[in-house]
Amino acid sequence: MSIMTNAQETTDPRSAPGGTPGVTRATLRRNFWRGVWRVLRRKPSRMVGVVIVAGFAVMGVAGPLLYPDHLPRDDDALYAPPSLRHPFGTDFEGTDVLALVITGARYVLLTGLATAVITVALGTLIGLFAGFRRGRWDTVLMRVTDVNLAIPGLPLLLVLSTVWKFESPLEMGLVLGLLGWGGIARAVRSQTLSLRERGFIEAARGLGLPTTHIIGRELLPSMAPYIAMNMLIAVTGAVYAQVGLFFLGVLPFESNNWGVMLNLAVFNGGALTTAAALPYLMAPLLAILLLTLGIVLIVDAMDEIFNPRLREE
Amino acid sequence: MITGTGITKTFKQRGSVLGAREVRALREVDFAIEPGGAVSFIGESGCGKTTLGRIIAGLETYDSGEIVIDGVPMSGLGHRRRQPHFRRIQLIHQDPYSALNPTRTIHQTLEAPLALRAKQTGRSRSWVDARAEELLGLVGIDPGYVLPRYPHQLSGGMRQRVVIARALTMDPEVLVADEAVSMIDVSLRLGILGLLKDLRVRLGVGVLFITHDIATARYLGDDSELYVLYRGQVVEHGPTETVITRPVHPYTQSLLSATPVLHGLEKPGAERVVPTEALDPSRTDEGCLFAPRCQFATQLCTEQRPRLSHDGTTLQEHACFHPRTRSVIPTGTGTETEMGADTLADTGADMGARG
Amino acid sequence: MTANPTAPAVRVRGLTVVYKTPVGELPAVSNVDLTLAPGTITGVVGESGSGKSTLALCLLNAVQSPGRIAAGSVEIDGLGDVVELGGEELRRARGRHVGYVFQAAQNSLNPLKTIGKQLLDLGRSHGVEDLRALVRDAKDLLARMGMDGARVLDSYQHELSGGMRQRVGIMLALVLNAKVVVLDEPTTALDMITQATILRIVREVHDERGLTTLVITHDVGAVAEVADNLAVMYGGRVVEHGPVMEVLGSPRHPYTRGLIRAIPRLSGDISLARALPGRPPTLGTLPAAGCVFRERCDRRMDVCDTVEPVPLTRDGRTVACHAVDAAADVDANAAPGVAAGAADRTPTTARRKEYA
Ligand SMILES: Nc1ncnc2c1ncn2[C@@H]1O[C@H](COP(=O)(O)OP(=O)(O)OP(=O)(O)O)[C@@H](O)[C@H]1O
Ligand SMILES: Nc1ncnc2c1ncn2[C@@H]1O[C@H](COP(=O)(O)OP(=O)(O)O)[C@@H](O)[C@H]1O
Ligand code: SF4
Ligand code: SF4
Ligand SMILES: [Mg+2]
Ligand SMILES: [Mg+2]
User: Which terminus of chain C, N or C, has fewer Cβ atoms within 10 Å?
Assistant: First the structure.
């Protein structure tokens, strides 16, 4: 009998039994990144997305270093039309618009990143905890989430901006993040509720594995594509929110950034009525659209990156 | 040794239109699993099999009754103190597709519980990898092939073997196999059944096997016991072979009659029993639970509930006022011997496949 | 066999279906010939991944991308070659001519609409004028299958048990009067008693309505209960095909033998039963030349590695295997035409009544 069972599903005879290759964490990680690369290459659009996002990242990190602290003004060329010297023309002071976009990227992107990290971290933590513990914790946390969702963001920011200058993008990110985690918490909670009924979570509990293991190693990876997608989308959301706030002039503008550019172009330059300030308006808009496009193109790959079945072909 | 006495469980469903509705999932179920023994529970879907399995594995609470694990009654213990005892009983999930985490390799899946086990027993880390290979060898799959792979890269049969190997990491005393073979291809079922039987012999692990397909219960070993569950009540209980070849309860007979006949290879039993209607769990609880579907029901059956007991004439216990043996299972037609002959002839070839 | 004069025949010829994979297009169904005689139930059995569902989808010309029908034809009497149909014509044929009960039909109903609503949607999409008559037919069919038609039509999917949903699936496949019906795994995930009920219903409705039916399953037992003919698939090929009693009673192809030997049974010597060794094939692991079954075959010969066996028909049974060919040549010289098990062949109609 014992021989019979062993003969049932003898696996690949070529790999000798017992000769286990060292499946270390390092190899797994290497395989993961190789898989990510494979997934990204699968569609050209994804590579385009990667290039765009990488470009913005470089802009955010190195942009301000490329230009002097105070951008040169050219009083002879106010609202200059696009030319070789100024691909997007100049602004009301004769400063190169491209330079403004590039140096303004850091504030915008840092805010976006900070917001995304905070929303996702808070949302995931609260959603996971509520869904996993259920019962009283769930009730309390979900009420808190409801309150979060009900907070009117714009009026609150209006009030805040009277006392707070938001000089650092991280401060801005913190506020936007604290305002925006509700949706993700809700979604993560419902995912957790359905996942915790799955066989493998139940099995882990039956084996007596610690809760940290169950949440960190079993639940979280299953939700990774979902969380990563939300994170990317949160970046664009934060960029829009923040640019919008500056554009409306809700926030005092101390520094140069895309929202400020839009505001000045429309309200000072009259870009909507005269053609002269049009490039000044279009440049930051284009930057925002391009960033969104890049992110959307990458989001498409998240499912495949985190699902081994899709990743390994 | 694990025993259960009078296990009762009622689910209260809230939110139904008619207010709270009660489902009596288990009614005073008694059972015992010897070390290395095999016990099967059979019944239609909704008869309480899964509920019982989950209770025995400590994943579900029960309303009344007592479970005794190795002499320790569980009812006296708080939740925390129970856990180490229930860890000795491992559940093998029905669905090998959802029982393994799709984002983790088999190595990762086995490593976590083994590391925990190593800590509990004061063993070194190097023991973990060796033990993982040993367990996979034990369930009949090649560790070198399986360990680095993800669940989706394995066949259903291999996955179920991995699930069994994972359950074995805790050195359990009993494996609870809930429909462990119904989701995998028929062609691979006997392999898993053979493995369970093998583990009984080699490791002394007890097996509690839950299924709606009685035929599979035969393959756990000659010494196995069979419990037939109907609407939460055990209606027949005895040695597996006896209950299958000489069933006395009409419900057992219905289950046996429903097993497909391999026409051409076997002839249907002469007295096949078909329930008069479909199972309706919300039916009245008066009298014999099976009476509404039983073609042999009498006045007595609708008035009183028969209790599970020996009547002295049969080897098995039953809960029926009118027990009678009926020939419901198929018989061979003779062509089988021819098939059997060459089966024997090629056993040798298969055995050579793996030394 | 009770050939019904109104039932259409289905002739599958040289059918090849390929799926696009990263390593190129691979065949899930390879050059399959299969005839469904009018008025019969044909069972297709095989392990997971053998191409059963793919073959069945071809009867509707419904293979989804990344798959496509690469070659062959599916002729249905009164409809023509389904492979050639397209657009509106094809959409109308589905449901009207060919009814399909999908694998896991238990879960394929819309959870947000009542069954009745889904029935009306089906009727409208096929331009049924008299919706009242449609509902009446549906109720009759449901009653025929032992259910309260009015109640079922008012129910949502989650209010029905697995067996009831399966019957609803069958009703939806039949209500437009399709004469060819395909059931993909109709009883998988159902318990034995419910399975027996569903199989009995399939058989009865088939006889009453004069259908040509194709039942797909990995469970030989389920097919044995209902089918007249049995086709065994492996690796996208039909390796054996013939009357069910004969195929089960004296299987010829080594795969069929292995499959039957692997069935857990209520009677007989359990020590003779054994699982099929090896793993079911997948698209990627199928060998390009020679016999697809050879890795798991106990009768493998040298020729099997290089030459793919062709299906040969002898006394009404088709087998594709070199070993069987060789044996038959010897047999033919000794005692022509004696098939084991043919002696106790009982008429199918008699057998059908047994479980009624
Ligand atoms: N969309 C698809 N893309 C790629 N390959 C596919 C696709 N659908 C099916 N296949 C492959 O085609 C082969 C036949 O699949 P099919 O679904 O017909 O099998 P089956 O016999 O019905 O199996 P089961 O019993 O699991 O339903 C399998 O190897 C399967 O992996
Ligand atoms: N968590 C639950 N809540 C409410 N009812 C349940 C629950 N689990 C099971 N039941 C009910 O208990 C009965 C027995 O179920 P189960 O043990 O799953 O049966 P089986 O495994 O035999 O199919 C069924 O009527 C089922 O609907
Ligand atoms: S007690 Fe009566 S109703 Fe119940 S199973 Fe026996 S004969 Fe049938
Ligand atoms: S052709 Fe050869 S390998 Fe294939 S089934 Fe026949 S004997 Fe076996
Ligand atoms: Mg169950
Ligand atoms: Mg299928």
Answer: C
pLDDT score for A230: 84
Q: Which of C225, C270, C280 sits opposite B185 (nearest CB)?
A: C280
DSSP secondary structure letter of residue B292: G
Radius of gyration of chain C (CA): 21
User: What are the structural domain ranges in chain B?
Assistant: 2-227
Name every residue whose Cβ is closer than 8 Å to that of residue C69 and which is 6 or more positions away in sequence: C15, C16, C17, C58, C61, C63, C83
Domain ranges for chain A, please list them: 43-312
Distances in whole angstroms, Cα of residue B275 to Cα of each of B231, B250, C191, C193: 14, 9, 14, 9
**Using an 8 Å Cβ cutoff, are C56 and C216 in contact?**
yes
Closest by Cα among C257, C193, C183 to C227: C183
Given the CA of residue B251, which atom of ligand 3 is nearest to it?
Answer: 5
Q: What is the pLDDT of residue C348?
A: 42
Is C196's Cβ below 8 Å from some Cβ in B? Answer: yes
Return the H-helix or E-strand segment holding C304: helix C302-306
Which of A62-66, A170-174, B39-43 has the least mean pLDDT?
Answer: A62-66
Class of domain A43-312: mainly alpha
Q: Of the candidates B192, B266, B339, which has its C-beta nearest C261's C-beta?
A: B339
Contacting C with CB below 8 Å, chain A residues are 4, 7-11, 313
CB-CB contact of A238 with A115 (8 Å):
yes
In this prediction the ipTM stands at 0.86
Burial-class residue C231 by CB neighbours within 10 Å (0-12, 13-18, 19+): buried
Separation CA B132–CA B295 (nearest Å): 53
How many other C-beta atoms lie within 10 A of the C-beta of residue C305? 12
Q: Do B93 and A309 touch (CB under 8 A)?
A: no
Q: Which bound ligand lies closest to the C-alpha atom of C194?
A: 2
Ligand nearest to the CA of B185: 1
Q: How far apart are CA B282 and CA B17, in angstroms?
A: 14
Taking each helix axis from N to C end, the angle separating C162-174 and C115-125, rounded to the nearest 10 degrees, works out to 20
Q: Which residues of C touch A11 (CB under 8 A)?
A: 279
The rounded mean pLDDT for chain B is 87
Cβ contacts of A50 within 8 Å, gap of 6 or more: A40, A294, A298
Residues of chain C with pLDDT under 50: 1-3, 335-356
Mutation pick for ligand 1 pocket among C48, C60, C188, C218 (CB with most ligand atoms within 8 Å): C48
- Residue B40 tokens read as 């099967």
Q: Does the Cβ of B188 fall within 6 Å of ligand 2? A: no
Report yes or no: B351 and A3 within 8 Å, Cβ to Cβ.
yes
Smallest CA–CA distance from C268 into chain B, residue: B332
A247-258 pLDDT, tens per residue? 877 766 666 778
Domain B2-227 has what CATH class?
alpha beta
